RNA sequence: GGGCCGCUAGCUCAGCUGGCAGAGCAACGCCCUUUUAAGGCGUGGGUCACUGGUUCGAACCCAGUGCGGCUCACCA
C-alpha cells in the first residue's frame, strides 16, 4: 500500500485488521482461520468465507504484521447426505454415516471423495491470489493429534453440557459425552459412548454392527469432537485470532455463541475476533446448468465470466454482512464497468484532501482486488460492450482484436487477453440472443432481398469503396443516408437489410461505427455482390 | 420465541468511525442530417420507512414502532 498522505482506510478489511490488533494485543504473528466441510462441490458461497479471510489477512500484512493464514478442511465430518449433483448416487448412499475422507471419489481418481472436492478448490485458489496453509482435520484426528483437546472436553463434560443446554430445547441426557466415535469396525458414527476412564480410555458400542470396545485417545483414529466443541478446541490448538462465519453460526444460540463459552471456560482463551458474512445468490443462469437438481455454482464457473481481479472486486467491494448476487446476465457488463471505473480512479489520484477521501475508498478496494500486486501501467481500458462486439466481429480471435485496437501496450496484453476470454465466454454462454451476432462469411450465399434493397446494398458498397478511406465516421454518415435517399426507401427499411446482409439479423450495433470496425475490404466483399 | 440484516429517486443500489443526499438504468430534452444493442451534452425527479432522543449539525449514533428477508433453537 502506498502511504504518502493517504487518508486512513475505512475499508472493512482494514477495520477488522485494526480490531484484531486492538483486541488480541500486539503479537509476533496473528493466526487467521477459515474452514469448510468438503461434503460436496465447494460452491461460491463457501468461497466468501475464504476470500473474506484473505482480505483481512492482506489488510494485516499491509500493516506490517506477520500472519498465518490457515484453512481447515473438515474432512473428518460425517457424510450425512448425498448431494444431488453427484454421480453414482447408489454407491454414495452406502457410505452414509462414515467420515467423508473414507468415501470414494466418484468424480475421478482422487484418493477420496473429500480429497476430490478439496483439490478442485485448492488448484483454483492461487488463480485469485489466495494461498492459505491447508490443514486436514481427518489427518489430525486420525493421528490423535487432538488427544489432549478431546480429553479436556471429557474432563469438562458437565460444563459443556450446561453450556449447550442453555440454547437447546431438549436437554442433553446425563449419560451424554462430548465426543463422537466412528466405529473401528464399520467406520460409521452410529455409536454410543458408554464410558470414560477419566484418562484416555473411551468405551463405545456400535449400534449398526454391534462392535464394542475401549479405545485409547492417544492412539485411536476413531474419536472426534462434535462441531460445537471441535471448533473451540481448534481455536486453542492453533491459537486462532480471527475467524469469520456465516450467519447460520452467528445467531444467538448458534454454534459461535456456544463455542465462545466453551473456548473461555474449557480451553481457557477468548474466542477469536469474528464477523458474520451473509450468503450470496446467483442471478441469470436460468436453466443453463441446472436441470434436475440444485444448481451448484462454484469458483470455476464464476471465473469463466469474471477475471480474477473482478471476482475479488465483487467481494472486496461489498461489506461482508450484506447479501449480494453474482450475476451471469447483463449485469456482468455493469460489474466490469464499475471495476474499470474503480481502476481509472486508482490511477488518477486527486490532490485536494476532500477528493482524496473519496478516492481512498475506491483505491483501497482496487488494491485488495489485485491478484499479484498493482500493475505498473494502467490496464488497457475498453468497455466490455465494445470488446464483446469486436470479439464477435473477429469470431473470438483476441489477437486480431488487439491488432485492430492498435494501441495496446505490451504490458497490457496479458490482462486484456484474460478480460477478452471472459467476455467471449459470456457472449457465447450467457448473453441474451439480441446481443449476439456473427459476421457473415464471404462464401455464404446472398440473402434474399427485393430489387430495391439489392440496389441499396450495392450502392452502399460502392459508396464505401469510394469514400470510407477519406471520410471519418461523421462525414461518412452522410453517404450512408444518401443511399436511402437516392433510392427513396425509408431508413427504417434500409437499416435492417444492411444488418441482414452483414450478420443475418435485423438489428445490430450502431451502424456507422459498426461499418468502420468491420472495414472496407470485408464490407465490399459482403455487400458488393448484390 | 430469540438473533441478525434491510427499508435512500420510477427501478437496482452506493453513501454508515456524524459535515452541502449520490451513481447506474429508466424518463424527458437537445446534438451526432434519423429510431434500433456500444455515442455526446443537459434536465427533472427525494418526508433517506415511522416516532422520539443525543448533537452546533443525523440517512448515518441511541431508544422504540411498522414492513420485508434471513437465521438459530437437530446436525454440521
Structure overview:
This protein is mainly alpha-helical and 530 residues long. Among the domains are: 12-146 and 227-277, Rossmann fold; 180-224, SH3 type barrels; 384-435; 451-527, Arc Repressor Mutant, subunit A (Orthogonal Bundle). 45% of the residues lie in helices and 10% in strands. The protein has helices spanning 12-24, 44-62, 89-93, 113-122, 137-142, 147-155, 157-165, 227-238, 255-265, 299-305, 308-316, 331-346, 353-369, 384-393, 398-405, 413-429, 451-467, 473-486, 491-503, 511-518, 520-527, and strands at residues 30-36, 67-73, 133-136, 180-181, 191-196, 201-206, 212-216, 223-224, 245-246, 276-277, 280-283, 324-327. Strands 1-2-3 form a three-stranded parallel β-sheet. A three-stranded antiparallel β-sheet has the order 5-6-7, with no helix packed on it. It has a two-stranded antiparallel sheet with strand order 4-8. Helix 11 (308-316) packs across helix 13 and helix 17 (451-467) packs antiparallel against helix 18. The model is unreliable at 287-293 (pLDDT under 50).
Amino acid at each position: 500500500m502506498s502511504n504518502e498522505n493517504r487518508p486512513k482506510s475505512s475499508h472493512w478489511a482494514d477495520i477488522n485488521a485494526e480490531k484484531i490488533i486492538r483486541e488480541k494485543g500486539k503479537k509476533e504473528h496473528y493466526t487467521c482461520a477459515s474452514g469448510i466441510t468438503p461434503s460436496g462441490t465447494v460452491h461460491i458461497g463457501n468461497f466468501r468465507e475464504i476470500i473474506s479471510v484473505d482480505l483481512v489477512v492482506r489488510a494485516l500484512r499491509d500493516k506490517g504484521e506477520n500472519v498465518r493464514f490457515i484453512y481447515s478442511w473438515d474432512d473428518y465430518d460425517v457424510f450425512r447426505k448425498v448431494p444431488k449433483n453427484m454421480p453414482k448416487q447408489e454407491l454414495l448412499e452406502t457410505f452414509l454415516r462414515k467420515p467423508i475422507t473414507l468415501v470414494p471419489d466418484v468424480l475421478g481418481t482422487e484418493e477420496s471423495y473429500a480429497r476430490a472436492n478439496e483439490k478442485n478448490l485448492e488448484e483454483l485458489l492461487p488463480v485469485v491470489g489466495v494461498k492459505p496453509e491447508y490443514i486436514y482435520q481427518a489427518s489430525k484426528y486420525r493421528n490423535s493429534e487432538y488427544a489432549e483437546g478431546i480429553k479436556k472436553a471429557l474432563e469438562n463434560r458437565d460444563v459443556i453440557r450446561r453450556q449447550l443446554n442453555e440454547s437447546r430445547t431438549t436437554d442433553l441426557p446425563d449419560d451424554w459425552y462430548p465426543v463422537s466415535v466412528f466405529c473401528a469396525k464399520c467406520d460409521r458414527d452410529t455409536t454410543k459412548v458408554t464410558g470414560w476412564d477419566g484418562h484416555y480410555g473411551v468405551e463405545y458400542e456400535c449400534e449398526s454392527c454391534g462392535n464394542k470396545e475401549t479405545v485409547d485417545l492417544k492412539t485411536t483414529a476413531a474419536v472426534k469432537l462434535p462441531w460445537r466443541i471441535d471448533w473451540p478446541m481448534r481455536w486453542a490448538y492453533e491459537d486462532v485470532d480471527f475467524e469469520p462465519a456465516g450467519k447460520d453460526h452467528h445467531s444467538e444460540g448458534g454454534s459461535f455463541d456456544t463455542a465462545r463459552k466453551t473456548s473461555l471456560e474449557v480451553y481457557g482463551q477468548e474466542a477469536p475476533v469474528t464477523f458474520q458474512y451473509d450468503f450470496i445468490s446467483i442471478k441469470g443462469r436460468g436453466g443453463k446448468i441446472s436441470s434436475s437438481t440444485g444448481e451448484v455454482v462454484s469458483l470455476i464457473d464464476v471465473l469463466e465470466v469474471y477475471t480474477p481481479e473482478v471476482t475479488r472486486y465483487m467481494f472486496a467491494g461489498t461489506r461482508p454482512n450484506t447479501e449480494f448476487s453474482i450475476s451471469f446476465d447483463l449485469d456482468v457488463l455493469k460489474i466490469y464497468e464499475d471495476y474499470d471505473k474503480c481502476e481509472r480512479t486508482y490511477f488518477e489520484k486527486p490532490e485536494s484532501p476532500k477528493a482524496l477521501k473519496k478516492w481512498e475508498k475506491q483505491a483501497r478496494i482496487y488494491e485488495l482486488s489485485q491478484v499479484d500486486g498493482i500493475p505498473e501501467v494502467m490496464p488497457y481500458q475498453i468497455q466490455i460492450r465494445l470488446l464483446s462486439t469486436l470479439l464477435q466481429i473477429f469470431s473470438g480471435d483476441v489477437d486480431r482484436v488487439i491488432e485492430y485496437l492498435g494501441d495496446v501496450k505490451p504490458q497490457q496484453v496479458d490482462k486484456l487477453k484474460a478480460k477478452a476470454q471472459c467476455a467471449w465466454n459470456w457472449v457465447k454462454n450467457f448473453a441474451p440472443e439480441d446481443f449476439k451476432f456473427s459476421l457473415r462469411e464471404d462464401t455464404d450465399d446472398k440473402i434474399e432481398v427485393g430489387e430495391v434493397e439489392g440496389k441499396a446494398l450495392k450502392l452502399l458498397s460502392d459508396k464505401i469503396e469510394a469514400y470510407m478511406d477519406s471520410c471519418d465516421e461523421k462525414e461518412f454518415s452522410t453517404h450512408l443516408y444518401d443511399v436511402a435517399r437516392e433510392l427513396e426507401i425509408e431508413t427504417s427499411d434500409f437499416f435492417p437489410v444492411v444488418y441482414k446482409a452483414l450478420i443475418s439479423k435485423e438489428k445490430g450495433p450502431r451502424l456507422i461505427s459498426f461499418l468502420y470496425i468491420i472495414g472496407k475490404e470485408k464490407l465490399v466483399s459482403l455487400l458488393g455482390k448484390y
